[in-house]
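Problem 12. The chain below contains 303 residues. Write out its predicted structure in token notation.
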Amino acid sequence: MRRTVIAGFALFAVAGLAGCGSSTTAGSATAGSASNSASKQSGSEVASAGNQAGGAIPARTIAEISTRTTEMLSTKGSYRLKGAVNVEVPGKGGQNVQMDGAAKHSSSGISMSLDYKTSGGPGGPGGDESFAMAYQAGVLYMKLPPSAGVPADKPWVKISQDGTDPLSKVLAPMAKQIEKSADPAEQLKYLKSGAATITQTSEEKVDGIATRKYTISVDLAKLVDLTDDATMKAGIKQLTQAGVTELPYEMWLDKDDLPVQFSMVQDIAGKAKTTTKITFADWGKDVTVAIPPADQIGELPTK
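Solution.
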């Protein structure tokens, strides 16, 4: 039972991180559908039109976005992020998750920490709660609320991808998925795969920052053949079984092709509607990633 509670919090962490890397693993079954039906252009066609218009921030092709943004992410190496995930289930109400944190990317890997607050919902993982997540060197740390039954002075539990303890054995795949979800380079590689198409682009300001907005549609039939990730394949299968064939999402890039905002709406009729919005800031600045000290890491109660 305790493991189930932790899995619930970890799932919310994964859901939030799905947008952090401009992920193509999830998106919108509704947003952008009008532009899809009206005019579906290739990435190169949309980019060419934008460049001819002489915009301050040139429109780029799918391949250019993937290459350029990955290069800039590697150069900057750090950022702060804030976001919200709202889930609405017909007849059962909704649940909102707010998150706030920071991440660092280097040749040695990814480190990040996020604080979460949940509210509403049909109970679960716990209705109104606060918890936290940290990740470093292949190890996931979860700071659980009192409702999870952890000691007040040792609120963190440790989940290792190669751990032999019972908790790690159960949740190690989730730790690995969090690492992939948090790595923009890992996610952006799918943009060059032929599964993604730019359907619309325009210049917009986000919180006073000049950006170029892209609406991108992902063909699920093509995407499923391009990944060997079991979790990703399972998610795509669930969507296709619900009748979803394409997933448009939106992202806003600044003049350096760095992400400023990411948005997606996944609406499966009669089942659930999930809205995700992530904003990014302080690229390349000195950010704090809070990894818990050893004396705050405890064991999950067995009863």
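Discussion. The first helix runs from residue 2 to 17. Students who got a different answer should revisit the alignment rule from Section 12.3.
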